[in-house]
Amino acid sequence: MNKFFILIIVLFLTFAKGRLEIILERCLPKADMENITIKCGLNEVIAIREAFFTSSIIDHQCPFIGNDVDHDDDDDGTSTKTKIKNGQQKLSCTDDLRLTLNSKCSGHPACVVNLRKIHANQCSGYDGWINLKYTCVPAAKMNSYCNVQLTDSFGYVSNPGYPKFYPPYDCKWKIIGYPGQRIEIQILDLSLKEPRFTSNKKLLNNYECTDNLAIVDMNVRRMMLCGETKSNLIEYRSKTNELIIDFHSFEFSPTRGIFFRYTMIDCPTLKPPSNGYMYRNQSYAYYNCYFDYVFEDSGQSSKILFCEYETYWNGTVTRCIAKENTTIESSINIDADDDNEPMVMEKAYALSHRKMGIKSSDHQNDDDDDGPIIIEKIDNFLTNPLTFIIIGIISLCIIFIIIAIIIHSNYRYGSTDISI
């Protein structure tokens, strides 16, 4: 078989409101394990997103990344499963290659890896494919400084010295999105000093992580990672629009350190226009004007905006004006065609801080994110079985009262007829 036919390189363009990433996917046969070359351009470094070997072959076609990939395997990153095909049982093997690729490639502009030599014992005897998914990160999107605030729509962060070493330091990165947004963290590489044994019985397994990475969400430490295992390569989504990544190192270490990617997800919360109100969840926002008011662009009293790609609203927001008012003013456009993401987000942020026209919102802090809370309460109330029971009881009571009034009226009129 021609080598150019079985070597597949696919480019994925991840685009959302000025956010453009080129994600490269390569699929190679096992025969090409000896010399795998990854090379990025000038002032770019490699970020491994996925890397695994699989023997799951469907009609000799390369299985694309993300199709039934299971990383819940053994400590060495290998798993075997029994699959049934055409009525027959067939063993399949998957080998996670991320740790190996990280040690050779992550943070470097180019690398050459011999996977056959390193993974000689994993999935031996199985034929299959090697799947790679990586990004060439430009220097403009890399942050290697400690104790800074990050507000870009997405970016990459590493410790000083990565991937050669990390110094004794306390690094803290505070990631802040717009109100209504959340933050997604993907730990791409984590290579820290192995936890040391201690007699402290308060610690699990008597091991202490002197060098560690902590994820702090809503002032609570959600998890702490240390050492170098594939279980550290996790994804985490924050509960609010702020997240803290805290890296603590006790002494100098020749290991790589940490490398992670962050991105803002969900659309920013937009306050209602004057003479109107709104509520929202993570998928859509519902706007409505007060009685005898309509939106100046559409002439309708309500509209729904949808959050596209967890990033931007798909429409415009204008004032609510009186029906007899025909003056048309320019609207705040936050559609997907705006090429300037900072300007778009500034517009959305300015709209979210416009003074609301309803009394209940005059007492809200501008930094509050009450939209999702309101819609969540409404959804919970409407979907709660107890709500239907209460409504049913109230309806029955009303029916009984109406019947009693009718019976009482008939009895009264009947008594009057008899007396006459």
Automatic annotation (TrEMBL):
The keyword Aminoacyl-tRNA synthetase does not apply. PROSITE patterns: CUB (PS01180). Keywords: Disulfide bond, Hydrolase, Membrane, Protease, Serine protease, Signal, Transmembrane, Transmembrane helix. The keyword Disulfide bond applies. InterPro entries: CUB_dom, Lectin_gal-bd_sf, Sperma_CUB_dom_sf, Sushi/SCR/CCP_sf. Residues 146-265 form the CUB domain. The chain crosses the membrane at residues 386-407. GO terms for molecular function: serine-type endopeptidase activity. Residues 1-18 form the signal peptide. It comes from the Eukaryota. GO terms for cellular component: extracellular space. Disulfide bonds join C209-C226. This is CUB domain-containing protein.
